[in-house]
Every structure is written in C-alpha cells, then in structure tokens.
Amino acid sequence: MVGGKKLLITNAFDPLKNKQIDLAVSDGFIVSADESTDPDETLDAEGRMVFPGFVNIHTHLDKADLLYQMRPSDFGKSLEENRMLLRRFKKQYSTESLKSRAKKAALEMLENGVTAVRSQVDVDSTGGLTALKALKQLKQELGKQLNLSLCAFPQQGVLDPASRDLLDESLSFGADLLGGLPAVEGAVANQKKHVDALFELALKYDVDLEVQVDESNDPRHFILPYLAEKTIENNMQGRVSATHAISLSAQSPQVAGETIKLLKKAGVNVIVTPGPNLVTRFNLPGGVHSRPSNSITLVKELLAGGVNVALGTDNIRDIFYPIGNASILRELYALAVSTRMTGQQDGLKLLEIASINGAKIMGLNYGLEPGCVADLILLEARHPRDLLNTKSLIPYVIKGGDVVSRIHVERWVA
To answer: What is the pTM (predicted TM-score) of this model?
Structure first.
C-alpha cells in the first residue's frame, strides 16, 4: 500500500450511484468526504467519471514484446504451432531481458488505468524458473505502483514428473497461484488427469487456480463442466477461474444453460480476453468447426446467470497475439462489439467486468465506498454509456491514494 497522503477528488461522477460526488482518500483508503480536512492534493475531476482501477486479470508479461524477435515466417500460425514455436524463444530467455520487456508492458498497463495485474508465468522444462524469477523481481520493484500477482503456468503440461516437480518448486518459490492448460495433454482422459493434478497441488499449497480451457469453436472441446465439478468436489468454491471457455458458445442452449448453473453453484469465475480470443486459430481436421475467426464465450448469459466475469488483455505483442497496446478500453471495445453489449446498462457492466469483478478474484476491496482501497481512475467520460465513445486516455491513475500516472488532455469535449 502506498498511502500516507490525503487526497480530495471533487466534481467527479459516480456511475454506481449515478450522481456527482466528492471523494476523499486518507492513508490509502477512501473515507467520507465530510472527514476530509487539509488534503495534500485536490483534483478537480471536471465531471469526469471516477471508478476503481482496472484489473488486468489475465496476461502473459513474460512473453510481452517477443514480437520484435519474430521472423516473417513466424506470423499467422495456429495456436498449436505457436506453442511449439514458443520453445525456441524460451531457450534464449534471460532474467534481465525478460524483466525489461515485462516492465515496459506493465507500465503501459498502468498508464492505461490498470492498478492490479495477474500474470501467467511459464514454468516448464524449456524455460525452467527463469520467467518466475524475473517477474518476482519486477513485482518487488513495482509494488508501490501496481498489484502484481504471479500465476505458475504449466505451458507444456503437468503429467510428466519433471513438469510436476517444477510446479512444486515454483509454488514453494513464491508463485501466488497455479494455472493450467489441459488441452496440451491431448486426449480428454489426460486432460482430466491434468485438472486432477492441478487440484492436488492447489490444495497442497493452499492457492487459487486459474485454468485455461476450451479455446476453440469446437463443441467437443468442452472440459469446463469437469472443472466446475472438481471445484465442488474439492471444496474450492470461489477460488477457481476458467479463462477463455470459448466453446461454451458452441453448445446447445440447454447444455450452455446447465453449465452456467453449474458454474454459479461452483463459484467458478470466467475470464474473457476478447481480442486474443477472436484472433486465435486452430488446425482442426477437415476444417470441422473452423470459422474465419474464432468466437467468444457467452458473456451476457454468464452475467445473467450470476457468474462473475472478468477481463484480461492476454498476450501483448508476441507470438500468440502480435498486436495490442495494453489498453483495457480497447479490449472492452472488442468485448462490446463481439457480444453486442450496447444496451443502456451495458456500459456499467463493462466497467465492472474490467475492474470490480477482477478485483473480487484477486481478493482486493475495490469500490467507491468508505473503507475501500483507494486504487482509482478518472476516465475521459461523464457516463458509462460514453465509456467507449471518448478519448482512450486515462487522465489520472491513483494507487493507494497517490497519483501514479497523469496524462494531460489537450481538449475534452463535454
């Protein structure tokens, strides 16, 4: 926590209460504006919208900016081919170069209003613990600017003993939680063994789980229900997240509805990464279930079913996603367009997906009420419906009550 200073934000719009407010901060927490005396700094929001900071709940800082090491022949490959290609890059990893790339992306996120990040960190026989060591150093360096949570990610699977030992070592070394990727194990039976192994490790180290599942349009790629069932079986309700879950949108309405009810019962969060989800390409035999572009999970249906949905940028300028500028607003645009979230109340839902919902997963007390952590952003909009219709700049980013990013806006149209 930064804290210590007193900050007063005046003339801000609170979208949760739909009214203008003054907001006071003391010692890193929001306090009643009536209690604010002699602030160290006063910000006039000029009608701008105030909201808890964005939470980038799924990204890969260890892979950020690998784009600039790619050859022309490395572009446009399928997800399966990219996973093989990645091994070539990881063999050349060094702690310093990796940390430098990751820091650049993390600071871009900060300027884009992100106050908390959960990064996947590859842990496997190719890269060992190099990425985790680098990002653990970065976590310490950026502690006053950004909450950084590190997820040990078994990019090459968990079933062989060497990979399992590395995950054990990574969790002992200080990874905050455990990731998963069942699809790399091949047959469904092995994918289920992968999920089983993840729960064993999560229980052993008392950590949360985030598992990447069902990334294609193929309805046969559907291990999401099994993940939810194992969550209940292992009494880990509320501590498991499923990232992507794209093939949920390829199921029949009945199967999708039953699965959403199961996710709600299990307290499984669903994390969506819109841009990368839409770009991902698979090599499917005979082109079965292939489409010109990929799909996205049933965001609106999940929300309606009471499932917590959060958002991440996923990969940034790398093998898997060679575009991106660390902008949550850009990802919200992709989400709104791909799911037709253009209704009167959808602007606020998008804000919550990008902020409060991710904070719940990370255990952060994000809100605008007294007692909430003073991780805040002022957006260049006066109302949630204008969120994606105004400049994509975040004029102020506030961490623990301290302004950690200021961007001068030359012209702001009411």
So the answer is: 0.93
